[in-house]
């Protein structure tokens, strides 16, 4: 189990990830955690719509346990899958289009496709990706926090 | 083009830049303000600022000129410049913001926990930034000479002075306002004249009158602002596609912008807005390229095809209206130089003040700003033979072969090691740098060797990725000790990684 104190990176006087001021987002994963006794507060069912500072799943992520690492890996995998899908949808036409234009020899088609047609497609792919990525994060938050969040955002 | 209108137009843009920068001075107070605008820039403003910063003179003038000379294949330039943001979005945007670092070297050090990787990245960032700044200053000199007849050095010096003033005064806070303003200025400066140009073309019955003479043949002997064509156009197209698609994410002035978003989710949404804004802008240069082939076909024969955008209002509309529209276009062109140059100066100054100067803080940041601009200004004044666009393409290719592997593997691959990152940065970025330097030096003028050296991204990007992966696999003992915690931080939504306060409006946040 990792040390709960801020990690000593004294060799690097300006270690950026830790020195960057981001007061509202002090990361629990790498900064000071709550004192351990807080854990015994969570003994029963979490009450809906209440902050769960000691909820087991979140605690596992914070403490870098094996199970917590597995949670983060699953989030990374789903985000990477979304990214690779979007990239493939972009790359396939981009790889084939120059060959297609070369064979076609029709400047008008090139003007229309590259000059006007491709930009809405790019924005659509981006929009799809953002929706997917945010949904992945919401699903992950539900997994971590249990019912509290599901009750509030279940309709989405 | 009438100087009587162009000079006031440029003066107004310069004045507005200084004034808006001064406005930022009044609200910039802390170090965080200077570097990342206190991370409080919302998606709308930030997207306009990113777009304003990104659309340089190569986009404003160069794309239309290239289309005029080389035809529709050149449309891959704006498509690549835009699609680069999509690649950035899907692989980099949110984790980069969540890393919490100020600059690219910060990211490298934080992820790999290695000072030496940081140094390599710092050198590459400063080098790429200066490479990109020199052509902006040279292009400014060329444009101001064409517009007003001022000596060539004057435009570069003017841009340098204005940018140093604006950046040193208010840092990132004020630059954000300046660049958001300049995006809308650039869009207006192309959109309004384009509207009247198409009307004029319609009034001419689709057949413009014959153009007399070549009044611009002696105005500038400059190179086109974007790159010329190769002997092997298909390979060159792929080289261009790889460099622009993958290079955008590593350009120092683009990367630093993402740290100004309040959180990873906002960084993603910002990128979508950027895609829309840049796509909207790039609808216009093809109109100018196409009208240029009707109204200014003689520019094809000269080296001044970049002047097409500046020249068309006078040609197609004429009279007082043409002069006024021409002045508007001139103002937009100058805004293009100013915004890109200030973004680059900002990024280079950030790295210099953190890694070179002895202490952080506002005063050192201002000193770094001066240093960041002095070197490229000297380069622009001393070296006149370097083609503008080759240097821009060089920055994209170097970025795609060094920073792109670092960011993508650093964010998604746990087994990346400091030796692997160093090897990939040096082999990928280094080989791209050498290749384009050889091209500029004129080692190979034609044939396959020239094509391979002038468009290196097709081979140098795989070299960078392979070196990084293979060396990392060979040094498994060097995996940074806190990799797991760092990865968690990069990918975990802010709403979960906070214990106490959660920003309002976050989905998944609590009341």
Automatic annotation (TrEMBL), chain B:
Q: Which GO MF terms are attached to this record?
A: acetate transmembrane transporter activity; symporter activity
GO annotation, cellular component aspect: plasma membrane
What superkingdom does the record give? Bacteria
Keywords from the named record: Cell membrane, Ion transport, Membrane, Sodium, Symport, Transmembrane, Transmembrane helix, Transport
Gene Ontology BP annotations: monoatomic ion transport; plasma membrane acetate transport
Q: Which residues cross the membrane?
A: 6-25, 45-69, 75-96, 117-133, 153-171, 183-202, 235-259, 271-291, 324-352, 364-386, 392-413, 425-444, 456-474
Membrane topology, from the record: Multi-pass membrane protein
Q: What is its main location?
A: membrane
Where is it localised?
A: Cell membrane
- A Pfam family name for this chain? SSF
Q: Which InterPro entries is this protein grouped with?
A: Na/Glc_symporter_sf, Na/solute_symporter, Na/solute_symporter_CS, Sodium:Solute_Symporter
UniProt similarity note = Belongs to the sodium:solute symporter (SSF) (TC 2.A.21) family.
This chain belongs to the protein called: Cation acetate symporter
The beginning of the lineage is:
Bacteria, Bacillati, Actinomycetota, Actinomycetes, Kitasatosporales
């Amino acid at each position: 189990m990792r040390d709960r104190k801020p990690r000593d990176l004294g060799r690097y006087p300006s270690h950026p990830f830790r020195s960057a001021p981001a007061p509202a987002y002090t990361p629990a994963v790498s900064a000071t955690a709550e004192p351990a006794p807080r854990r015994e507060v969570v003994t029963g069912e979490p009450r809906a719509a209440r902050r769960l500072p000691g909820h087991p799943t979140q605690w596992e992520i914070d403490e870098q346990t094996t199970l917590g690492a597995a949670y983060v890996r699953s989030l990374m995998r789903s985000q990477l899958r979304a990214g690779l899908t979007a990239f493939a949808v972009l790359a396939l036409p981009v790889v084939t289009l120059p060959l297609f234009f070369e064979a076609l020899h029709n400047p008008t088609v090139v003007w229309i496709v590259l000059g006007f047609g491709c930009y809405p497609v790019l924005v659509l792919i981006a929009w799809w990706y953002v929706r997917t990525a945010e949904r992945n994060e919401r699903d992950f938050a539900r997994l971590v926090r249990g019912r509290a969040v599901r009750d509030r955002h279940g309709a989405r | 083009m009438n100087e009587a209108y162009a000079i006031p137009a440029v003066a107004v843009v310069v004045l507005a830049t200084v004034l808006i920068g001064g406005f930022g001075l009044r609200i910039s107070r802390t170090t965080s303000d200077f570097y990342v605008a206190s991370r409080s820039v919302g998606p709308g403003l930030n997207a306009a600022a990113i777009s304003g910063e990104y659309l340089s003179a190569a986009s404003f003038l160069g794309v239309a000129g290239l289309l005029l000379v080389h035809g529709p294949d050149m449309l891959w330039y704006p498509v690549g410049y835009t699609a680069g943001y999509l690649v950035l979005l899907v692989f980099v945007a949110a984790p980069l913001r969540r890393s919490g670092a100020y600059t690219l070297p910060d990211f490298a050090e934080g992820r790999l926990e290695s000072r030496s990787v940081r140094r390599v990245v710092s050198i590459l960032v400063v080098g790429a930034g200066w490479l990109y700044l020199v052509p902006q200053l040279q292009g400014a000199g060329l444009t101001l000479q064409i517009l007003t007849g001022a000596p060539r050095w004057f435009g570069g010096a003017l841009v340098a002075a204005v940018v140093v003033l604006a950046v040193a005064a208010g840092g990132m806070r004020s630059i954000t306002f300046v660049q958001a303003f300049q995006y809308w200025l650039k869009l207006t400066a192309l959109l309004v004249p384009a509207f009247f140009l198409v009307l004029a073309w319609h009034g001419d019955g689709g057949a413009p009158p014959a153009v007399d003479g070549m009044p611009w043949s002696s105005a500038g002997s400059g190179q086109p602002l974007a790159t010329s064509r190769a002997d092997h156009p298909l390979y060159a197209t792929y080289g261009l596609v790889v460099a622009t698609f993958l290079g955008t994410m590593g350009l120092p002035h683009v990367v630093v912008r993402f740290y100004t978003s309040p959180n990873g989710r906002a960084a993603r949404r910002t990128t979508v807005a950027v895609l829309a804004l840049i796509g909207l802008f790039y609808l216009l240069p093809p109109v100018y390229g196409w009208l240029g082939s009707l109204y200014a076909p003689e520019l094809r024969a000269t080296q001044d095809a970049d002047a097409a955008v500046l020249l068309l209002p006078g040609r197609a509309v004429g009279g007082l209206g043409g002069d006024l529209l021409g002045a508007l276009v001139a103002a937009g062109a100058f805004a293009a130089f100013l915004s890109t140059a200030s973004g680059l100066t900002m990024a280079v100054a950030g790295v210099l003040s953190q890694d070179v100067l002895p202490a952080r803080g506002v005063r050192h940041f201002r000193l770094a700003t001066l240093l960041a601009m002095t070197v490229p200004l000297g380069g622009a004044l001393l070296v006149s033979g370097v083609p503008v666009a080759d240097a821009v393409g060089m920055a994209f290719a170097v970025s795609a072969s060094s920073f792109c592997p670092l960011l993508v593997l650093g964010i998604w691959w746990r087994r990346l090691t400091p030796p692997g990152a160093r090897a990939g940065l040096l082999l990928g970025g280094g080989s791209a740098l050498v290749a384009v330097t050889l091209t500029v030096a004129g080692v190979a003028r034609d044939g396959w060797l020239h094509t391979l050296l002038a468009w290196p991204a097709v081979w140098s990007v795989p070299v960078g990725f392979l070196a990084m992966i293979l060396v990392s696999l060979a040094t498994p003992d060097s995996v940074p000790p806190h990799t797991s915690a760092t990865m968690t931080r990069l990918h975990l939504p802010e709403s979960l990684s906070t214990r106490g306060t959660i920003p309002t409006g976050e989905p998944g946040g609590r009341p």
